[in-house]
């Protein structure tokens, strides 16, 4: 039995310990905002926050997540930084297909919490674990700068 | 196009209210069909020539509700190109609707009702701009007529404002809600009586990011129908639909195309917690078309259990039926193409006397360019959900071709197409992969066998192993140059297995549509030339990949022209302009190009002036010829595809380590009228990134018939570090008098050759094999 707090709500999950958090979120808890892109920590589509840290939920087993507090895209607007990131994403018109964007937003929020005024290079290195097959990288960068500017005031 | 003869038909059938027309979903109104109206000549081209043609009946697409809210049906698949927003912009604008009162409804597969839905070939806006404008203008006219009736005034005095009708002499107003009921009783007006809005009356169309206009609560945001859902994780893609009692499946498909199942040991699989059962699926015979590949399915109570169960399967495959596919080896295959390219092949175009042209030359040059297979690898891997009863099936899937999905599913489970409902979800990227609905048929087959709703999830490994791959290709060139370096003779042998191998037995030559993609319609002014297409067999499933055969043709031609320019000692820009010759319009059939993206060559000639235009624009904006430090260079390439024109300049630095820094990418683009420029820009920005991936990283290879790349550690995709520091998009020729061109694909073909030309300028090293991978690090 795994106990998780997801977006503030406690859940008990009766699944094998090696089940990745991603599939528990998507298939069992029905929270489909977090996406499956590779299953090997190579694309970032499945990024969520675990005790505030960005993690790839496709390789984070329930054994590792047990007792932890998880935040997903569905609740990131409750976070002031997350909210700014979402707003900047809309202002810049970042998304194309949108499939990678939950992961991008979760990574970008984690970046800005750590580094409220990142340089282009900081953004490049932090965000390069997140693939966007539609190629929205330049808009992502622009939106992160925009969110950083707003968060400051 | 003349459509007035259609009017009678619409009038007779249209006395149904659009008050609830589209939402009622009952297809009570017969859609107007093109075949009553168009001259024979026009039926051969454009939207009219697509299966089920176009429809412009407002009852099919527009509903106005009692509270005044408007529902607009979008029947094209959304995969990031923004068509759900762009077509709704067209309708909302022409109707006079308030954006905040508009919602979009995604159509199920139903081409009999909506007209063609196949979202491929950069066609959505090109084919649907005018029908959608007409549908909305009809509805607006009916609202104006209704207001005239209510006020008992001449209709000429009634004009739609924003979500209301204004009586112009008095300033009196009626909201859409107040006149919708009466309007719904009126006949749809004749097409030739419709007055379309002029461009200065548009509120939504033609806007750029940052323009001030009304959107939900924010005056500066680009319009994006799904934007808020996406950033909140609420947007629904294929795997996000949940049905009561649904079970989860993953499938082990044969890794060699055409091999069959010999035996399977599922004893370990059955011990995996959560696994319910395994099922075997018939393996597809070749050519497979859109049929599923078959194999062994693991059914489980969640996706992870199914994946684990599949890992535990022990399967023996029989590779005999696969024939030569079982020996498919990309290294050997390249050698075969190279050897074949030494000999003459099927001639597809010839002008002038090639031998004499070579004799006249004072110098010769030759080169070969190779591009490997690639996988589209949309971020969302294929996935589908199906629910099947004895006489019906319902499918939810991210598909580019809903109607083909319906037919493929029906055939797979022995139903008639009309017994199958296909709900189209958002697509997490498509790029051509999701034009082929094999995964939807898998879900239906399994749902039928299991007796419960089934979700089939493809893993990334499945996606890379079983894509419908972009073709592998070799472009071989020989040219004779005169004293000034200008070609006197040009020989191009173009080799690649064809997509028609999916549907017919062992075709060895490119299909007419593949030849039409920048090969047969070669636009340059060379006195003697021959284009040949030697044989090339297919050993894997080959399919459409964004821009399709334009990719190798552009890579070869645009690289070789740059090589000729270098040999001639002439600036590349000057050389290519010279080679194009003066601005003029070429009738494609007159040069032997018998396929012009399905468009009428009269409306869509090959326009050398527009080719020159994008080259002039991009070089000017990128400051072509400016002095750059050592190790840095600029490269140029231009390509015409999907009846649009694109030219790219890249400014690239190659570090000592071989690492490539792209300082900037400029693209000039001419698709004629720009309906949603903000999304045109985003498509082109994306094309640049994807093109960089094609140049630097993308490679699918086979050994012993099996694909060697399993996931993104082996099939590398461009990441943020690879993208240019600056991307600048320059849109030109925004002119409603020009027939609209495509947007999704044409930006891509010139990117890789521009990058390779820039690398040559920076380092003197000519790239003739893609991907570049570590070719620069030695
Ligand atoms: S799905 Fe987890 S990183 Fe790709
Ligand atoms: S927006 Fe499509 S993958 Fe990023």
Describe, in plain words, how this protein is organized in 3D.
- The complex is a heterodimer of chains A (153) and B (778).
- By secondary structure, chain A is of the alpha+beta class.
- Chain A folds into two domains: 2-75, Ubiquitin-like (UB roll), CATH 3.10.20.30; 79-150, [2Fe-2S]-binding domain (DNA polymerase, domain 1, Orthogonal Bundle), CATH 1.10.150.
- Helix content of chain A is 41%, strand content 14%.
- Chain A contains six helices and five strands; from the N terminus they run E-E-H-E-E-H-E-H-H-H-H.
- In chain A, strands 2-1-5-3-4 form a five-stranded mixed β-sheet, with helices on both faces.
- The longest helix of chain A is centred in the last third of the chain and has 16 residues, at 137-152.
- Chain B is α+β, with helices and mostly antiparallel strands and 778 residues long.
- Chain B folds into three domains: 17-231, Aldehyde Oxidoreductase, domain 4, CATH 3.30.365; 238-322 and 382-457, Aldehyde oxidase/xanthine dehydrogenase, molybdopterin binding domain (Aldehyde Oxidoreductase, domain 4, 2-Layer Sandwich); 330-374 and 468-763, Aldehyde oxidase/xanthine dehydrogenase, molybdopterin binding domain (Aldehyde Oxidoreductase, domain 4, 2-Layer Sandwich), CATH 3.30.365.
- In chain B, 29% of the residues lie in helices and 21% in strands.
- Chain B has a seven-stranded mixed β-sheet, with helices on both faces.
- The longest helix of chain B is centred in the first third of the chain and has 28 residues, at 124-151.
- The N and C termini of chain B lie far apart (58 Å).
- Chains A and B meet through helix 1, helix 3, helix 4, helix 5 and helix 6 of A and helix 10, helix 12 and helix 22 of B.
């Amino acid at each position: 039995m795994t106990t998780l707090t997801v977006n503030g709500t406690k859940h008990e999950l009766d699944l094998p310990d090696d089940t990745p958090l991603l599939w528990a979120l998507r298939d069992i808890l029905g929270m489909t905002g977090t996406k499956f892109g590779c299953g090997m920590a190579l694309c970032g589509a499945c990024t969520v926050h675990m005790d505030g840290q960005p993690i790839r939920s496709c390789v984070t087993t329930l054994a590792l997540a047990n007792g932890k507090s998880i935040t997903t895209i569905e609740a990131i607007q409750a976070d002031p930084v997350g909210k700014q990131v979402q707003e900047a994403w809309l202002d810049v018109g970042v998304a194309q297909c949108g499939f990678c964007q939950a992961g991008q937003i979760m990574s970008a929020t984690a970046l800005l919490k750590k580094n409220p005024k990142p340089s282009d290079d900081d953004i490049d290195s932090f965000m390069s674990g997140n693939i966007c097959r539609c190629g929205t990288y330049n808009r992502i960068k622009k939106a992160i700068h925009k969110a950083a500017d707003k968060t400051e005031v | 196009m003349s459509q007035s003869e259609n009017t009678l038909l619409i009038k007779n059938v249209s006395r149904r209210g659009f008050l609830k027309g589209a939402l009622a979903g009952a297809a009570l109104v017969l859609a107007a069909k093109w075949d009553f109206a168009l001259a024979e000549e026009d039926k051969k081209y454009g939207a009219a020539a697509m299966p089920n043609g176009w429809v412009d009946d407002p009852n099919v697409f527009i509903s106005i509700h009692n509270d005044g809210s408007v529902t607009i049906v979008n029947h094209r698949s959304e995969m990031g190109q923004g068509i759900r927003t762009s077509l709704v912009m067209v309708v909302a604008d022409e109707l006079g609707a308030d954006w905040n009162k508009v919602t979009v409804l995604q159509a199920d597969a139903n081409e009999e009702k909506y007209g063609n839905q196949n979202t491929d070939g950069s066609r959505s806006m090109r084919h649907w701009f005018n029908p959608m404008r007409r549908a909305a203008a009809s509805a607006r006219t009916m609202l104006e007529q209704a207001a005239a009736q209510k006020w008992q005034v001449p209709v000429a005095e009634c004009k739609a404002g924003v979500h209301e009708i204004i009586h112009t002499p008095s300033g009196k107003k009626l909201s859409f809600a107040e006149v919708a009921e009466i309007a719904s009783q009126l006949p749809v007006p004749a097409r030739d009586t419709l007055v379309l809005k002029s461009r200065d009356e548009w509120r939504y169309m033609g806007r750029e990011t940052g323009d001030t206009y009304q959107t939900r609560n924010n005056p500066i945001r680009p319009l994006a129908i799904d934007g808020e859902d996406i950033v909140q994780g609420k947007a629904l893609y294929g795997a996000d639909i949940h049905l009561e009692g649904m079970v989860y499946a993953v499938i082990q498909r044969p890794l060699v195309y055409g091999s069959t199942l010999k035996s399977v040991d599922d004893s370990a699989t059955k011990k995996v917690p959560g696994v319910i059962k395994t099922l075997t699926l018939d393996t597809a015979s070749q050519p497979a078309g859109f049929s599923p590949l078959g194999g062994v399915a693991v059914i489980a109570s969640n996706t992870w259990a199914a994946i684990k169960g599949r890992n535990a399967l022990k399967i023996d495959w029989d590779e005999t039926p696969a024939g030569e596919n079982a020996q498919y080896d990309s290294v050997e295959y390249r050698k075969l193409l190279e050897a074949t390219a030494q000999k003459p092949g099927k001639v597809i175009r010839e002008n002038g006397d090639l031998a004499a042209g070579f004799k006249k030359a004072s110098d010769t040059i030759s080169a070969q360019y190779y591009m490997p297979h690639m996988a589209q690898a949309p971020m969302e891997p294929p996935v589908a959900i199906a629910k099947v009863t004895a006489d019906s099936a319902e499918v939810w899937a991210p598909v580019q071709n809903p109607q083909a999905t319906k037919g493929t599913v029906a055939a797979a489970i022995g139903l008639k197409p009309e017994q199958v409902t296909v709900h189209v979800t958002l697509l997490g990227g498509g790029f051509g992969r999701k034009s082929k609905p094999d995964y939807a048929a898998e879900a239906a087959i399994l749902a039928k066998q299991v007796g419960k709703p089934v979700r089939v999830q493809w893993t990334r490994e499945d996606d890379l192993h079983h894509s419908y791959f972009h073709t592998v290709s070799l472009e071989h060139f020989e040219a004779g140059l005169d004293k000034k370096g200008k070609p006197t003779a040009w020989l191009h042998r173009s080799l690649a297995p064809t997509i028609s191998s999916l549907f017919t037995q062992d075709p060895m030559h490119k299909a007419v549509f593949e030849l039409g993609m920048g090969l047969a319609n070669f636009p340059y002014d060379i006195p003697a030339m021959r284009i040949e297409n030697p044989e090339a067999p297919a050993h894997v499933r080959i399919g459409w990949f964004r821009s399709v055969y334009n990719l190798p043709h552009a890579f070869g031609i645009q690289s070789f022209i740059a090589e000729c320019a270098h040999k001639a000692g002439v600036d590349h820009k000057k050389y290519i302009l010279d080679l194009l010759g003066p601005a003029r319009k070429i009738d494609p059939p007159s040069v032997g190009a018998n396929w012009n993206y399905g468009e009428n060559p009269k409306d869509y000639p090959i326009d050398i002036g527009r080719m020159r235009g994008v080259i002039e624009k991009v070089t000017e904006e990128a400051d072509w010829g400016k002095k750059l430090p050592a190790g840095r260079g600029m490269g140029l390439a231009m390509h015409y595809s999907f009846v649009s024109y694109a030219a790219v300049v890249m400014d690239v630095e190659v570090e000592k380590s071989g690492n490539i820094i792209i300082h900037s990418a400029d693209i000039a683009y001419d698709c004629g009228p720009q309906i949603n420029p903000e999304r045109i820009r985003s498509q082109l920005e994306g094309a640049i990134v994807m093109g960089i991936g094609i140049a630097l990283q993308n490679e699918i290879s086979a050994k012993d018939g099996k694909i060697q790349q399993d996931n993104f550690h082996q099939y590398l995709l461009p990441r943020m570090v690879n993208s240019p520091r600056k991307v600048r998009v320059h849109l030109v020729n925004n002119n409603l008098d020009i027939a609209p061109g495509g947007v999704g694909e044409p930006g891509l073909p010139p990117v890789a050759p521009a990058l390779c030309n820039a690398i040559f300028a920076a380092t003197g090293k000519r790239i003739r094999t893609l991907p570049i991978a570590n070719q620069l690090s030695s």
